[in-house]
Amino acid sequence: MLYEIRTYGEQCLKDKSENVTEITEEIKTLLDDMVETMHEATGVGLAGPQVGVNKRLFVIDIGDGVVRKIINPEILEMSEACIESDEGCLSVPGIYKKVRRAQKIKVRYTTVEGEIVEEEMKDFLAKAFQHEYDHLDGTLFIERISPVAKKMISKKLQLIKKETEKKLKK
Questions:
Q1: What's the CATH class of domain 11-169?
Q2: What tens digit of pLDDT does each residue of 1-10 get?
Q3: Helix (H, G, I), strand (E, B) or coil at 31
Q4: How many CB atoms lie within 10 A of CB 109?
Q5: Core-most of 47, 93, 111, 151, by most CB within 10 Å?
Q6: Helix, strand or coil for residue 168?
Q7: Residues in contact with 69: Cβ distance below 8 Å, sequence separation at least 6, in sequence order
Q8: Segment (H or E) for 83
Q9: So which residues are the catalytic ones?
């Protein structure tokens, strides 16, 4: 099942997500559907809040042959070395801006099988993980860009928010 991707201006994107307490068939189906939705939208990641689900889970597919379904993630360590590169977001369509992220991170999360995994990630995978992790705390990438960059996109953001508000009234 394809989900509607929530867009800038919707409250669910600002709310802090709750831990998944049990990995049920419903959670497994949700993650499968999120992967399908992400692929359909040609994204590399999709978090629960982006489909209106206030749970600490997300999916990532950076094209390395591994589709990651991540439940209750934690970032344990972040390198001081950073990379700065363009980011976009399915919930903020058409906007791409440079964001600084830790180049390497050490993470812990639960798989759909209930296995707890600790993994070191770097470069694009680390960036994608940090981006999706932010969604679980109600943070969008546009909150991590410079004030000048934010000013440059303010009109576009207003338009997205207006479209979102129109859609919500229907």
A1: alpha beta
A2: 899 999 999 9
A3: helix
A4: 22
A5: 47
A6: helix
A7: 31, 35, 57, 59, 111, 112
A8: strand 82-89
A9: 132
Q: Is 58 exposed, middle or buried (0-12, 13-18, 19+ CB in 10 A)?
A: buried
Alpha-carbon distance of 42 to 137, in angstroms, equals 23
- 82-130 pLDDT, tens digit per residue, is 999 999 999 999 999 999 999 999 999 999 999 999 999 999 999 999 9
Are the CB atoms for 91 and 11 separated by under 8 Å?
A: no
The rounded mean pLDDT for the chain is 96
Cα distance between residue 131 and residue 169, in whole Å: 29
- Domain spans of the chain? 11-169
List CB contacts of 37: < 8 A, sequence separation 6 or more: 2, 3, 5, 46, 51
**pLDDT for the residue numbered 129:** 98
Residues 48 and 136 sit within 8 Å (Cβ to Cβ): yes
CB atoms within 10 A of CB 60: 24
Strand order in the sheet with 45-47: 45-47, 57-60, 68-78, 104-110, 116-122
